[in-house]
Amino acid sequence: MMYVDPSERNYIIGTVALLAVFAAAVLISGFAYGIQLPQPVDQVDPRIVATPGNSPWGDPVEERMHELAPGKYEVYVLAQTWMYSPGSTNYGQPPITVPAGSTVTFYVTSKDIQHGFKIQGTNVNMMILPGQVSSLTATFDEPGEYNIICHEYCGVNHHTMFGKIIVE
Ligand code: CUA
């Protein structure tokens, strides 16, 4: 048998063990916690996506949430510097309001540059790119306010880019 220095053997064992831990972390987060990569669901032209008549993001902001079935919603959120519509109450946009227990599918795109879309207390954490539609679904069991955070640097007022989901 080939001679392997004991300390080198320990490093090999440690390396293999670490890889096993990392692989287990991926499998556990994917299957036990349901953490999924956001799917690129569609492509849009960012130059006209917010123009009325061209896409759901061109509809008036009050009409971008649809109840598909009792407790099941979809909402089309437009990201731009430095707000979400709907969502950014600090920029005069309406909050996203749903009853407790609702399942909400978010369709988010940007009309200008890259943004982030992270909802506190949920698994929703997406990068938002102009031209791409990002989508994830979350269930809101607990009443309260959930913040949407932009976590991609998007200019001087990046820190003011947040939104609000109200679960009643
Ligand atoms: Cu939008 Cu940072």
Structure in words:
- This protein is an alpha+beta fold.
- Helix content is 16%, strand content 38%.
- It contains one helix and eleven strands; from the N terminus they run αβββββββββββ.
- It has one helix spanning 6-32; strands at residues 39-43, 65-69, 72-80, 83-85, 96-98, 102-110, 115-119, 125-128, 132-140, 144-149, 162-167.
- The strands form two sheets. Strands 1, 2, 3, 4, 6 and 9 form a six-stranded mixed beta sheet that branches.
- β7 (115-119) and β8 form a beta hairpin.
- The radius of gyration is 21 Å and the shape is elongated.
- The mean pLDDT is 93.
- Dinuclear copper ion binds at residues 82, 115-116, 150, 152-154, 158, 161.
Helix content bin: 10-25%
- The number of distinct β-strands equals 11
Structural class: alpha+beta
Radius of gyration: 21 Å
Main sheet overview? 6 strands, mixed
Give the helices and strands as they follow along the chain. Answer: HEEEEEEEEEEE
Number of helices: 1
Shape: elongated
Distance N terminus to C terminus?
68 Å
Distinct bound molecules: dinuclear copper ion
Let me know the average pLDDT: 93
